[in-house]
Amino acid sequence: MSNDPFPAYRFSRALLREPAASVVCGLRAVDRGDPSLELFHLEHAAYRAILESAGVETHLLPALSDWPDSVFIEDPAMVLPEGAILFRMAAPSRAGEPDTVREALQKFVPVTPLENGHVDGGDILVTGPKIFAGLSKRTDKEGLDAMGAIVSGWGYELVGVDMPEGLLHLKTGCALLDEETILAVEPLKETFSDFRVLTLPEGEEAAANAIRVNDIVLLAAGYPRTEELLRRSGYDVRTTKMSQAQLLDGGLSCLSIRF
């Protein structure tokens, strides 16, 4: 493991992917209409600006029209201080995305490809030496076994999480706030028994996909009770609109690979 005692929310760089015109064809569990490409670009730019204001150097990769969901760049890979893991994606329409981030990652860190199974980055929550991994429709046991073999060699413990109904990814329902605290929906509360858990207010469960970035917590706009809960708990909260990403079951963490 890194000599840094807790690197899990301290970031100096982030990779982002420009939304492609084909994003209107992106995957979604429930059809609530197609996103507006113009609005998506505006919200994406605002998100990038907040990362930069938090001290993160951002690198915007070009749009990929062949991969409609490629704006959700977190899913094909993850980065730890020891290097990146290039995942294998279960959704056929996203299967080629890992290769599209390999070159960009190799400029900064060594890259290790996952050899077996499937993992989406949205199912991976790094809390420090313990990494939680959701078993979902996009992440399977074979993939977690392969990932576990990699990260255990780096000194991490990988903990599998059986997913509650209604969550696409693990981080659809939880976020790391600091080394002791997790924001989570009620069905995931017991998963994090070693942490202080802030439970999402009823009706605002969609706010769970927040991200801690250095000294701020970034929260999707439109969840006032969650924002108040976080502020009362001592966090410096910034909000930004996520209306277009949310139409495709996406959120804040999905839009960047932070390291």
TrEMBL record:
InterPro entries for the chain: DDAH-like
Annotated GO MF terms: amino acid binding; dimethylargininase activity
Active site, UniProt feature: 169 (proton donor), 254 (nucleophile)
Domain of life (superkingdom): Bacteria
Pfam families with a match to the protein in the record: ADI
Binding-site positions, substrate: 27, 69, 74-75, 94, 138, 248
Keywords: Hydrolase
Protein name: Dimethylargininase
SUPFAM superfamilies associated with the record: Pentein
Family (UniProt): Belongs to the DDAH family.
Entry's Gene Ontology BP terms: arginine metabolic process; citrulline metabolic process; positive regulation of nitric oxide biosynthetic process
